[in-house]
């Protein structure tokens, strides 16, 4: 790590890592790049994940993502430094025809290239981060050369400069993004009204199950709509989005 790169890392900010996850035709989903490195003393292009985050690649690039040109997924990981805290993942994934890749590597053997650009944050600002990452992901793919990662390093610095814990006290925490192109067609608030209109009396049933801490399996496609539905349900409980998810990924 050079002095210049080291000086751009701000460990005190809410953004822990900016990561690229790709799909390898033999190895499956794997981390291809991380800034800063995921493992202390590791390199930026290492495929290694910390033991507590071994499922990070499959969470950031979920099964079935190849069915969509682009989509977004939110996920949680346990904190590596505090067993009672959660790390919030926001992953924007895309796929483009291999003809648009200007710097092809030996592992590119299929007709399309699929990758995700993922941010790991200590703050649950899902939609606020996602709207920025949708643009970053598009620009990264538009370049056609995935070895050019200066944009991702700048993203890490810029997000740490503009995000802070005070935003959890504002309406920014309730922003949800519906993305079908790299420029969001609509930016809307988490809507309990839409949740009730869609599920009717079952919305109350799901809310009761949440209060009882029962296990509920959700299935919906594309996954961005699923994430927004779950967050809308959680928002019915006052303070849940802002402060209630801190231990959601903790292993008891």
Q: What's the structural domain tally?
A: 1
Number of strands: 7
Specify the structural class.
Answer: alpha+beta
H and E order: HEEHEEEHHEEHHHH
Q: Spans with pLDDT under 50 lasting ≥5 residues?
A: 177-189
**Kindly, what is the distance between the CA atoms of the first and last residues, rounded to a whole number of angstroms?**
36 Å
CA radius of gyration: 18 Å
Residue share in β-strands: 15-25%
Shape: globular
Helix content: 25-40%
Largest sheet: 5 strands, antiparallel
Mean pLDDT: 85
What spatial order of strands do you see in the largest sheet?
A: 2-1-5-4-3
Comma- or semicolon-separated keywords:
252 residues, alpha+beta, five-stranded antiparallel β-sheet, two-stranded antiparallel ribbon, 8 helices, 7 strands, 30% helix, ABL9/DENND6_dom, Tripartite_DENN, DENND11/AVL9_GEFs, UDENN domain-containing protein
Structural write-up:
30% of the residues lie in helices and 23% in strands. It has 252 residues and is an alpha+beta fold. A five-stranded antiparallel sheet has the order 2-1-5-4-3. It has a two-stranded antiparallel ribbon with strand order 6-7. The radius of gyration is 18 Å and the shape is globular. This is UDENN domain-containing protein. Belongs to the AVL9 family.
């Amino acid at each position: 790590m050079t002095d210049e790169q080291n000086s751009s890392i701000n460990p005190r900010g809410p953004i822990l890592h900016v990561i690229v996850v790709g799909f390898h035709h033999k190895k499956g989903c794997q981390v291809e790049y991380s800034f800063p490195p995921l493992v202390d003393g590791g390199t930026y292009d290492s495929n290694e994940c910390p033991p507590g985050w071994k499922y990070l690649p499959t969470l950031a690039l979920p099964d079935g993502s190849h069915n969509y040109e682009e989509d977004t997924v939110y996920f949680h990981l346990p904190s590596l430094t505090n067993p009672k805290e959660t790390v919030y993942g926001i992953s924007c994934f895309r796929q483009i025809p291999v003809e648009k890749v200007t710097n092809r590597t030996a592992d590119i053997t299929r007709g399309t290239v699929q990758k995700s650009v993922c941010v790991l944050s200590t703050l649950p600002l899902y939609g606020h981060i996602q709207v920025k990452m949708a643009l970053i992901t598009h620009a990264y793919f538009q370049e056609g050369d995935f070895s050019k990662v200066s944009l991702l390093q700048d993203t890490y610095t810029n997000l740490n400069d503009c995000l802070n814990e005070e935003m959890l006290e504002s309406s920014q925490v309730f922003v949800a993004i519906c993305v079908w192109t790299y420029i969001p067609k609509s930016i809307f608030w988490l809507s309990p009204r839409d949740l009730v209109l869609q599920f009717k009396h079952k919305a109350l049933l799901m809310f009761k199950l949440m209060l009882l801490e029962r296990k509920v399996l959700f299935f919906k496609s594309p996954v961005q709509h699923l994430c927004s539905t779950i967050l809308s349900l959680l928002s019915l409980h006052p303070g849940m989005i802002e402060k209630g998810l801190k231990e959601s990924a903790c292993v008891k």
